[in-house]
Amino acid sequence: MKELTTILISDSTGETAQNYIKSVTSQFPDLKVNLIRKPSIDTTEEIDEVMTEADSNCIVVQTIANEDLSKHLRAVAKEKNIEVLDILNYGIRKVEEATGLKAVREIGLTRTLSEDYFNMIEAIEFAIQYDDGKDPRGFPLSDIVLVGVSRTSKTPTTMILATKNFKVSNLPLVPEIKLPREIFEVDPDRIIGLVIDPDKLSNIREVRSKSLGIVGESIYYDDKRIRRELEYAQEVFKDLDCKVIDVTENTIEQTATDIVQYYFEKFPEESKKQVQ
């Protein structure tokens, strides 16, 4: 198998360069790629040291914003007959040409911890704390509350929404368990009911049970039990007067997208909340 050594040189984490080269090399299934990642490079001395490891059989992918450092790297690479993929500066030049603006070219700017970043971390911590209805005090504090029977993808959808800066809690519906009073303190427009085809739900639950080592028949994926749960869920949704989304044919990502679209229709003033 053919091998290619790729050195990723960045003034930040090098993640952009890594994602880029992985996308490119994915088109070469018979190629083995050896990635060498060199983050936080911000001096010519560091560039020189990194380039001592390089030879003409490798490729360098660089994301260095500082123009002088970038030029130095290209000059060193040229002397050693090494190909450089300068993906960041190419993009910067094209944006400058299109807009007439000049890039600030600050080292490490992409790793600056923004307010959005901290808000996203807070939203993820919120999702973990108030997952699965374990603390109903979280419902009135939530941007969005997901409600549905077991295995309607409440938790994974919650986590996707958290990465988009939404504080989300979720409540599993069980006919034998009384609804917490806190759920009725939530604005109905912030509550989303999730439903699913009973046959598909039965299959999902059966597969889940077997993955946990449960053999034989189980009420968890019994058809009559599932239909009872779903009927109960519909009654709850009517009581809560909430939006209902059918997730039967949806991916988790599509469900999250549908929820975000609905949310901003109801709360357009909060559109700045989402992380792109």
Automatic annotation (TrEMBL):
Catalysed reactions listed for this entry: N(tele)-phospho-L-histidyl/O-phospho-L-threonyl-[pyruvate, phosphate dikinase] + phosphate + H(+) = N(tele)-phospho-L-histidyl/L-threonyl-[pyruvate, phosphate dikinase] + diphosphate; N(tele)-phospho-L-histidyl/L-threonyl-[pyruvate, phosphate dikinase] + ADP = N(tele)-phospho-L-histidyl/O-phospho-L-threonyl-[pyruvate, phosphate dikinase] + AMP + H(+)
InterPro entries xrefs: Kinase-pyrophosphorylase, PPDK_reg
Assigned keywords, A-Z: Kinase, Nucleotide-binding, Serine/threonine-protein kinase, Transferase
Molecular function in Gene Ontology: ADP binding; ATP binding; phosphotransferase activity, phosphate group as acceptor; protein serine/threonine kinase activity
UniProt binding sites for ADP: 148-155
Protein EC: 2.7.11.32, 2.7.4.27
One Pfam family it belongs to: Kinase-PPPase
Task of the protein: Bifunctional serine/threonine kinase and phosphorylase involved in the regulation of the pyruvate, phosphate dikinase (PPDK) by catalyzing its phosphorylation/dephosphorylation.
Family note: Belongs to the pyruvate, phosphate/water dikinase regulatory protein family. PDRP subfamily.
HAMAP family for this protein: PDRP
Protein name in the entry: Putative pyruvate, phosphate dikinase regulatory protein
Organism: Anaerococcus prevotii (strain ATCC 9321 / DSM 20548 / JCM 6508 / NCTC 11806 / PC1)
